[in-house]
Amino acid sequence: MNNDVKFIKGQGGLVRPLAGKDHYTGLVFYAMPLTEAPTGWTYGTPQQVFSLADLEVKNITATTAAFKTLHYQVSEFFRINPGASLWVVLQVLTTDGEEPPVTLAPDYAEVTALLQTQPDIRQVGVQLNMEFNPGMVTALQAIAAETELAHKPVHLFLQPKWGVIDIGTLTDLRTLTAPKVSVCIAEDTTTRIEELRLAGYNPGCIGTVLGLVSKAQVNECIGWVGKFDISGAAGIWDIPALGDGVKIKTLTDTQIDTLNSKGYLVAVKRVGLSGTWFYDSPTCVTETSDYAYIENNRTIDKAIRGMYTYLLPEINSPVMVSADGKLTPDYVKYLESVAGRALTEMERNAELSAWKVMIDPDQNVLSTSKLMVSVVLVPVGVSRVIEVTIGFGLSV
Fold first, then answer.
1. In angstroms, what CA-CA distances link 313 with 65, 132, 152?
2. Which DSSP category does 35 fall into?
3. DSSP readout, 128-169?
4. What average pLDDT does this structure show over 359-384?
5. Cα–Cα distances in Å, from 172 out to 83, 204, 393?
6. By the 8 A CB rule, do 278 and 249 touch?
7. Exposed (0-12), middle (13-18) or buried (19+): which is 35, by Cβ within 10 Å?
8. Which residue(s) pair with 321 in the sheet?
9. CB 139 within 8 A of CB 284
10. 106, 185, 270, 317: which has the highest count of C-beta atoms within 10 A?
11. How far is Cα of residue 313 from the mean position of the Cα atoms in its chain?
């Protein structure tokens, strides 16, 4: 009947939690000195945020002084990946006490503290209202190395404040030795972003990046054109720019390629398609490194976490040897199976192409009490370049 009460069922309102833990994400936000924490927040104490609405209930809104950028980053994170798990840490920067005071760079201890309380977090973003210098990358890599030793491997993302960007003199991140760190240089150009910039904030793109990384499988490049378009309604990411507000469309292809080759996370348009994507997924290490891209690190980190979980119960367990002191075939087979459980799951989920666990039965465990296990992973490839040979012919 036309004259009736009609119902249209909505979809997506429940925002069900995602499976697994690859989407577990942290965001450490450093406020400027003398900034008072919002009601209900304590500097240095993590709070889990379940959605943008939840952040607003926790007294951080689009109009909260000094935290407007944080609100934007969280809105982007959940726009890209609703249902993901996010923990936010607020901290305030300190000054040196001189007149006029100089703002001191943090030691990023909040990252370590966050992983101490939430060891399942896989990636952490750090937002600073301070201009970039390579020492920030070095300091974050030290934190990542420290947490990895504590069996909590994590990838770190840095969002600094950008002044005028000179692409030619910009630090080449590929000359650093920080494979567990990636640096954001992209920025949107919506009215909201322009208002933030005019008010002295540095919006950047770390919320967008964290949303993408938490959404992608560990083997997937966040620049995958067929899957990770970051544009949205109301012109979001319709016109990408750099962190100084210079629009990407005003740059030459050579300049854009230089930004990518220097290891920065930059957003670009693609000819023939409507949308915006990250150019690639670089880290702050030479391109010849096995860990030159975010997905390389996420893949091996997941393998390490999984193998650790399965192998940990074997610590201090009996090791069976034969009369000649060698490991028995049954024990070798058993331990190879234990070590391979996590890798089998990853291969089943298309996160690995292949893998092999090897245990030398001739090793002298009786004397050393050390059991050596060798693992080889064959990763999933990424088609960064597709080269097509094309021409005319008289026949095919």
1. 49, 44, 17
2. P
3. EEEE--HHHHHHHHHHHHHHHHTT---EEEEEEE--S--TTT
4. 94
5. 36, 19, 45
6. no
7. middle
8. 327
9. no
10. 185
11. 30
Per-residue pLDDT of 204-234, as tens digits, reads 999 999 999 999 999 999 999 999 999 999 9
10 Å Cβ neighbour count for 165? 17
pLDDT tens digits for range 38-64 = 999 999 999 999 999 999 999 999 999
How crowded is residue 238: how many other Cβ atoms within 10 Å of its Cβ?
16
Token look-up 């020492």 returns 135
Q: pLDDT for 92-105, tens place per residue?
A: 998 887 878 888 88
Residue type, 50: F
What contacts 24+ positions apart, CB below 8 Å, involve 47-54? 47/87, 47/88, 47/89, 48/85, 48/86, 48/87, 48/88, 49/74, 49/86, 49/87, 49/88, 50/15, 50/85, 50/86, 51/15, 51/78, 51/82, 52/78
Which among 28, 22, 262 has a CA at the least distance from the CA of 139?
28
Mapped to the 3 state alphabet, what secondary structure does 344-355 carry? HHHHHCCCEEEE
d(CA 306, CA 290): 20
